[in-house]
Amino acid sequence: MNTTRLPVVEAGELLRNASIDGIDNICLYRVPPETQDASDSTTVLLTEVTEDLTNYGSDKFQDRNQAVEFQIFFSTKENVDIDSIERQVESIFLSKKWRIRLSRAHTVDPTTEQLVKIYYFERTERNDF
């Protein structure tokens, strides 16, 4: 299966290539068991949210609106610059034509005690038929 065009894969590559200081793990679709209890590291989980096909004409759709959910589980270490990590993520994705659909308030994961930030980023791709 070719997964290179999936929005989660592309978002993961973009995030990896950015090498943001403070992000230790980037996980696609699921957090592996060995990472689940790692509260001393910052982990980003990327999952697909929606894919809407729009702008129909001549029995074809012209646009594909794709959304990806980012869950950032911040390390419980005190030296993590949460604001810097968030601003860098926002800046990188906005510069690559992704839009912020939703930015949720911070919450605390009840299991790991990590601060969590959730974003929904979306983009529109034009189909070339």
Automatic annotation (TrEMBL):
Domain of life: Bacteria
Pfam families: DUF806
Annotated InterPro entries: DUF806 (IPR008524)
Protein name: DUF806 family protein
Species the sequence originates in: Lactobacillus jensenii
